[in-house]
Structure prediction request, 591 residues.
Amino acid sequence: MNSGRRHITKAFPWRRSLWIAALLTPALIVMVLFVLWPLLSAFRLAFYEFNGLQPTGFIGFENFRKVLFEQPYSGWTWNAFKHNIIAFVALMVFENGTAFLLAYALLKALPGHRIHQVIVFLPVVLSAVIVGFLWKLFLHPLFGLVNQTLALVGIGAIPWLGNEHTALGSILFANVWHWLGFPTLVLLAGMQRVGKEVIEAARLDGAGDYVLMTRIIWPLIAPSVTIVTILTFIGSFNWFEIPYVMAGLTGSPGGATDVLGLYFYRTAFGSTTTGIQDFGQGSALAVMMFIIVAGVTAIALRFLRRREIEL
Amino acid sequence: MSAATAPKGELLKNGAIQLMLAINALIMVYPLFVMVMSSFKTNAEIFSSPFALPAHFSLSNAERVWNETNFVRYLANSLGITAAAVALILLFSTMAAYAIARYQFRLGALVLMFFLSGMTVPLKLAIIPLFIQLDSLGLVDSYAGLVLVYVAMGIPSAVFIMTGFLRTLPRELEESARMDGASELRIMRSIMLPLARPALVIVAIQNAVPIWNDFFFPLVLITSDELKTLPQGLTVFVGEFTTDWGVLFTGLTLAALPITLLYIVLSKQFISGITQGAVK
Prediction:
């Protein structure tokens, strides 16, 4: 198996090493400069005070204390955090719940199921900016498609994005429309791996759709559910584009749609309304978001994987 | 079970499922259909008869987008940046993956681990040091800075996929070429890489779609209007034409058009590339 290696090693050992090094170098340089170094710095910078782009002094956990416990920062942080949690729960229920039903329907391979897969995945390939603006126009209180449709059945104009009770739900809806195809096709692929034989056998034993779905398919697609859950969590905590486009940098109205991604961006790169621009506090927020995402992902992976092994 | 032989209950159930799928398809497609139709309409038409087809398929909105905005410039920027980033990702990752997959050397496993650990890093959260880093290199507000960030983001999973694929190629081909005295470079370029084409297509799509659609990194890194990408340019554009819905729908339609056409042609590769990309 390694005769090639022996062949060159013997003849030109340094030439072989040089060749391997040359192949690896470009990728390694890019990774060190633009992934490893920034990541390590991100943790370091969270403990510094900043003046513009320049760290001016080590201040311990001061940045963390401010964003977590000192008003007005802490109020913004917790408000945004709450919305990330709401987004995660809502997306798990509405996006992934719908995706599960759709995947089960598509598994039946009824006429038209192929074209449906292509259709449901189409918005996934579009930019969140396009999707966000499109739904912002459709949700316009007077001229938007949604209210014009509701008017046909006699429902009065609802200011979807302008009302603090409906704004977050509205942008979550746009997000579901954008991404629905993704969990649908990941879960469908998981279901297809279960295999026709298993499903046929269960059917012959008299299992109806409900039993088949809850007792056979649901446990057996555990790996796909794990992936979808974790990606939904990561997505919810990195959520930025659609809220930015539909609700603006401050999460209007009145912070009702503010999420950690927006708050982090405002803190790090400044916003027109607060005028605050602070790399130190921004780094502290980034580190905390990183810890939440990495920590919960690791725990969830362990917990959900155990479910996979048991079955 | 075909519909002809299915019992009545099954038929009814399948009918219900088809109805649900039809409603879902309508929800997915109708907004896009309205977007495209509205791009041919005047403002008055959009406001007064949102559901009707356009009275004339007028291209005057498209003309305004073409003449009065930087749309074409944004489009060209996005094309150039995406192409450059994807090309470099393919080049660098294939080289690295080839070294890891086809040669045995000390540190080989460690190097692979290093690349793989990069897959778990959300680079967005390192944007502050990344910004400082690019600033010190004079690369903020430049094509090169943005491209390098995308290359760094794309390399880990690309190395992972390419290593896995290159490992499956048979040794014999490479051995016999070596016997014939072909150089290592020649073996890689003329014998191994042509076989890796399917994996290269997957890696290319997997990276091209998120780069083409990205908004966050240009928002932070690009400030000059003539360097802006299409998603970023759309925000400028929407700000300028807030009340001109015909132009807005045209801008959105034109921005969605290139990737939609490509998706329709290559839907299978898009779906497997994007779902695998996240599953990695």
Chain A has two domains: 2-45, 62-310. Chain A has 15 helices and two strands. Chain A has a mean pLDDT of 87. The two ends of chain A are 38 Å apart (CA to CA).
